[in-house]
Design goal:
alpha/beta, six-stranded parallel β-sheet, globular
């Protein structure tokens, strides 16, 4: 079930990518992606333009129009979601994000932080050092500020997917450093991960880090951070993927846990419901919300957990699926009731 929820084109995001938006989609089709989310950058204030940028609002309008055309053109080959990647720079960024959502019926946005203390931290080394000096002069101090500002973004927006969670590594003195070396930074990371988990968010596995010279994608668990809980989570992932072939890589050659799975060891597996019960609860909630990407992703997970497509469809339609045991039916019914009451 190959999918991506973070992409850029050289046509609408020249500083980040190359090729036209259509060429990007054609490549996704050639790679046999089933779902592909378009996420060009949102407009920002002129004071935050990168050197190559001009009118971002006009760029956004042209992007949305072209994305709609391409979605219709390739509808029989790939499912395309049209969204954007946010830039959380300061609290006022929320106003700009809401303006984008008001201008166009976007289906999705990627929650990202590319600035710390209003200065880009992944554009070049010079800007990174400038931000670090403002933070106090050390990588550790800058990392603390970065994760605090990320936490502010998470609280304000609760993005469905969090982009390149630990992007702050990229231009630092030691991008491969284990965060556990800095207790104050590690504490902030765990806080942010707990918050993402509390509202049901996801972390993306972003391979751009490899293209930019790092040995692992964003985010990861280093060898020093491995625990018995990590092994427990990996066992569950292995069992899940064994039920249905997948092209998703969840470990690298050294055995390090990659991507969104890196966040899981910070939860409590002993308190977690089984995968099928958890997915039944998610599907119940989806009866009350229009979230195509979440529905797609969790339908595939539910299928891998042992539910049939007929049961998944019944769950999405608001009916207790046939063939559930007493506990499974109770989980679904309770989640459905809670979701209905919340609305």
């Amino acid at each position: 079930m190959p999918f991506s929820h973070h992409s850029h084109s050289g046509q609408f995001c020249p500083g980040h990518a190359k090729d036209s938006l259509e060429e990007v989609i054609q490549l996704a089709i050639a790679k046999k992606f089933q779902v592909f989310c378009l996420t060009e950058h949102m407009p920002r204030g002129k004071e935050d333009f990168y050197p190559e940028e001009t009118s971002l609002v006009a760029n956004e309008a042209a992007y949305f129009q072209e994305a709609q055309r391409l979605r219709e053109k390739y509808a029989d080959q790939i499912k395309i979601l049209i969204g954007f990647e946010i830039d959380w720079i300061r609290p006022e960024s929320r106003t700009l994000i809401e303006a984008s959502l008001a201008r166009h019926p976007f289906e999705f946005f990627m929650g990202s932080v590319h600035h710390t203390l209003t200065i880009p931290i992944d554009y070049d080394r010079e800007m990174y050092v400038q931000a670090r000096d403002l933070a106090g002069g050390t990588d550790e101090q800058l990392f603390e500020v970065y994760f605090d500002e990320q936490y502010q973004m998470l609280q304000q927006l609760k993005p469905l997917v969090v982009g390149h969670f630990d992007l702050i590594r990229l231009k630092s003195d030691d991008p491969e450093r284990s965060f556990t070396q800095w207790p104050a930074v590690w504490e902030r990371i765990l806080r942010n991960l707990d918050f993402v988990a509390s509202y049901g968010g996801l972390l993306e596995l972003n391979s751009a880090a490899l293209r930019k010279g790092m040995s692992e994608p964003f985010p990861t668990i280093s060898a020093e951070e491995r625990t018995p809980t990590t092994d427990f989570i990996e066992q569950g992932i292995r069992q899940t993927f064994a039920k249905e072939p997948s092209q998703v890589e969840w470990k690298d050659a050294s055995g390090t846990t990659l991507g969104p799975y890196a966040a899981l060891p910070h939860g409590s597996p002993s308190l977690s419901p089984s995968l099928d019960k958890r997915e039944l609860a998610v599907l119940a909630v989806m009866t009350e919300y229009d979230a195509p990407y979440v529905l797609y992703a969790h339908s595939e997970i539910a299928l891998a957990a042992g539910l049939s497509r007929e049961q998944i469809q019944q769950a999405v339609d608001g009916m207790v699926p046939d063939g559930l045991d007493e506990q499974e039916a109770m989980v679904y019914s309770l989640a459905l009731k809670l979701a209905t009451l919340r609305r």
